Amino acid sequence: MTNATYAPKARAQHKSAEHTENQLLLTRIHNVGFKFIEALQELPREQLIGMLTLQDEEFWAELKNQAQLQILINAKTPEKQEQEDRAEARELFLKSLEKSGGVHKSSTVIKILSTTVPTLIKKGNRGEVIFIKWGAENLYPVFQFCTREKNSEGGMLAGIPELLSLIKHQTSAVRKCQFFTREVEIPGTETKVSIVEALRRGATPEEMAHFRILAANFGTNHTM
Asked: Which end of the chain is more exposed for a tag (fewer CB within 10 A), N or C?
């Protein structure tokens, strides 16, 4: 009699527990599925549609593999953050060069200097022309070139070849650009001018003498 009294209650509790477990499993599956779908947002539409044509077992395996791959790609690691920061800094640097004319690709510089690709590469490696490595392409700041006969030295802005030849110490292309584009004080005057600006209008002998000193000391403790 006692068993007959409590058995239905025990079965009801068992069913209730099963129902709760099933609900928890369904919720977990929903959460995992949502996380996978969220990770796959960047996959091409064609690839996603192709996955939908797979059998259930293949679909689940491919879904999991692609989602895990995307999670790895999107993961923020210190190394990846450093690379992204560096890329962002380079983008900002290129944007800053727009004030002085932007950059040329190799194909344009070859025409301006009437030279060839191998010779241009040699000029860059010897420090005779400033270039910025950008993936497989080299970019050349526009400010160093000039096509006006009055102010040109073989396609270069008059004065820049000499100043570049005086920079003997190893320094980056970014710093070389800053050397020419940022304003400097001219001794004996109250004015500040960038070397590029002075060269474009025609630098005075006093200015050139000062620029030569700055170039020779550039990259040392005596640099500006």
From this structure: N
